[in-house]
Design brief:
seven-stranded mixed beta sheet, 11 strands, mainly beta, 119 residues, four-stranded antiparallel beta sheet
Length: 119
C-alpha cells in the first residue's frame, strides 16, 4: 500500500518562495517516478514536475521551468517541490503522485495541499 502525504502549502505573495514536501510510505522501492501535479479552480489537473526515483531524471512543465525545482531525499522517502518567484497563476491545489513504471499512469495520489499566491 502506497501512501503519499503533501505538506507546505500556504498563502504567499507574488515573488515569494515556498517548499512543498511529499512524504511517501509503503513499497517505495517499487516506484518508477513521482510527480507534482496541480489543479486550479475551473481548470484541469496538470503535471508540474516529475522525477525518477532511481536516477533522479527530472522534467518540468514549460510554465514552471526555471522557477520550480523537484528533488528527492531517498533516506527520508520524501520528494520536494521548491517554488521560487511564484505568480498568481500558480495558485492551485498541489498533489503528489507516484507510479510503478513509465508505461503506467500515476496511480497513487496524496490528498493535496493548497497554495495561494496573492498579487
Amino acid at each position: 500500500q502506497v501512501q503519499l502525504i503533501e505538506s507546505g502549502g500556504e498563502l504567499v505573495r507574488a515573488g515569494d518562495s515556498l517548499r512543498l514536501s511529499c512524504a511517501a510510505s509503503g513499497h517505495i522501492s517499487s516506484y518508477y517516478s513521482m510527480g507534482w501535479f496541480r489543479q486550479a479552480p475551473g481548470k484541469e489537473r496538470e503535471i508540474v514536475a516529475s522525477i525518477t526515483w532511481s536516477a533522479a531524471y527530472t522534467a518540468y512543465a514549460d510554465s514552471v521551468k526555471g522557477r520550480f525545482t523537484i528533488s528527492k531525499d531517498n533516506a527520508k522517502n520524501t520528494v520536494y517541490l521548491d517554488m521560487n518567484s511564484v505568480k498568481s497563476e500558480d495558485t492551485a491545489v498541489y498533489y503528489c503522485a507516484a507510479r510503478h513504471s513509465s508505461q503506467e499512469s500515476y496511480g497513487y495520489w496524496g490528498p493535496g495541499t493548497q497554495v495561494t499566491v496573492s498579487s
